[in-house]
Every structure is written in C-alpha cells, then in structure tokens.
Design brief:
Largest sheet: none
Oligomer: single chain
Number of helices: 15
Structural class: mainly alpha
C-alpha cells in the first residue's frame, strides 16, 4: 500500500526525531513540492506543521535551513517573473514567518508592488503583518480595508467557530484559543494602522466594537485581555471558564494552520 503525502510527512517527523536528518530533509522537500498534487486540502498543513517540522530540523541540521531558504528563493524567482502569483507570495511569507524574517517579507512585497501592483493588492492582507512590523504606516494604511467592516467580518468568523465547537469531535480550549488569537491579531493590525495614522478616536471605537461584537462572555473577556494589557485573562482557571470553554482537546491546532487557511 503506497504512502499518502500525510503519511510521508509523519514519517519525516519521526526520521528527524531519530536523527536521520538527511532522510527527513528529503521527505520535507518532497512534501513541500508535491503534497498539493495529491490534495489541495493539505495547503494549511504544508504551510504550518510541515514548515514547523522543517524549521526545527534546521536548528540541528544546517543543510535543512539552507534547503528551506533555497525553497524561499525559488518561490521568489517565480513571484517576480510572474509565474508564481499569490501562492508564491504565501509560500515566501510563511517560510519567513517560521525563520523569523518578517523584514524579508516586507522587502519582497515592495519589490512585488513595483513590478506587479495587481498581484501586490491580492497579497496585501498576507503582507500586512510584515508591513506593520517594518513601521511603514503609510503603506499599511494604503491597503487597510474599511476598519469597521473588517472587524465585523472577523468577528463573524470567530463567533461561528465558538457556536459550532460542540459539533466537532475535539472542541475544547486549544482550538478556540487559536481562533481568539487570530481574531485579536487581525484587530490589533487594524488598531496599529489607525494609531499610526493619528486616528486615535477611531482606534478606541474599533477596539470597543471588537469586544462588543463577541456575545459569549468568556470569549469576549478573552478578546479584551488580548487587546487591553492588564485585563482579566481568558484562561483563568475558574469553574466558569472551564465549563464555558469545554473539555480538553486531544489534538492541538497550531496557530499557523488556521492562519494559512484564513489567508488562502
């Protein structure tokens, strides 16, 4: 019976743990280059778990990091010659996220903007974190969607996840926390741009709106804690919070998986 792409990724993770570094690297490269041929649904895994395993291997086996950087450069060449498009930019940004190179994502976006403004527009949401980190408020403001509409749309996504958590097999805190973190990150990006542009009153209004739009008390407190330093943390170990959030989840959903799914 032939191995699936997911099987090969799991095998590569085990190889890395066993010290079979070269073998693991070959499998990581294969997964990155061919997994989507088997199933487009592996897009999120490819840009989260797989890159995470590969990055960890690179910390103990330098050729793995070099190979990951080579993949990034390959995607960059495709992006700039017009053959890669939005998918290539997502690959570059995700690799840079794992390598801690947000500044490179910003530079790539600037190069793309100069060469292909339409593709840059399509990639602007994925680039926003890097643009803000670079302190380029003017550029961030250029691509910032309508603040209120953006926050309302993001809140609907979070509220849907909260409302439907009971319909899944594994439904407790780690998964919900992932989506709370993503929502807070989206809101904070909007607030950072507004504050940077001197739109302080609007930023305060949007921050309040971001919490008011979440009806579930515990989740709303979680959002407030993420947006306002010093607010009561969502994960406080009380009977109420444990009862509201649910039972312990068996499978941990990493932030990068959900982030990649949102950006796709």
């Amino acid at each position: 019976m032939s191995q699936t792409a997911h099987d090969r990724l799991h095998a590569a993770e085990l190889m890395a743990l066993q010290g079979r570094h070269a073998e693991a690297l070959r499998e990581f490269i294969w997964f990155h280059e061919h997994a989507l041929e088997e199933s487009p649904a592996l897009c999120g895994v490819r840009l989260s778990f797989a890159l995470g395993y590969w990055t960890e291997l690179g910390k103990v086996y330098p050729p793995a990091r070099q190979a990951l950087e080579a993949q990034r450069d390959k995607h960059l060449a495709a992006l700039l010659d017009g053959s890669g498009g939005k998918a290539a930019f997502h690959d570059i940004a995700s690799i840079n996220d794992h390598l801690g190179c947000l500044d490179q994502t910003y530079q790539v976006f600037l190069a793309l903007l100069a060469r292909d403004p339409d593709t840059a527009q399509a990639c602007s949401r994925r680039a926003m974190e890097a643009i803000i980190a670079a302190g380029d408020v003017a550029l961030a403001a250029r691509y910032l969607p309508d603040p209120e509409r953006s926050v309302r749309a993001a809140s609907k996504y979070l509220n849907w996840e909260v409302a439907n958590r009971g319909r899944r097999r594994f439904t407790a805190a780690p998964r919900i926390k992932t989506f709370i973190d993503i929502y807070a990150e989206d809101v904070k990006q909007v607030l950072a741009v507004l504050e940077g542009c001197g739109r302080h009153e609007e930023a305060r209004r949007i921050a309040q709106l971001a919490t008011d739009l979440i009806p579930a008390t515990t989740i709303r407190r979680a959002v407030r804690a993420a947006l306002l330093p010093g607010a009561r943390p969502w994960y406080e170990r009380s009977a109420l919070s444990l009862r509201t959030i649910g039972r312990k989840e068996k499978l941990r959903h990493r932030r990068q998986l959900a982030k990649a799914a949102r950006a796709a």
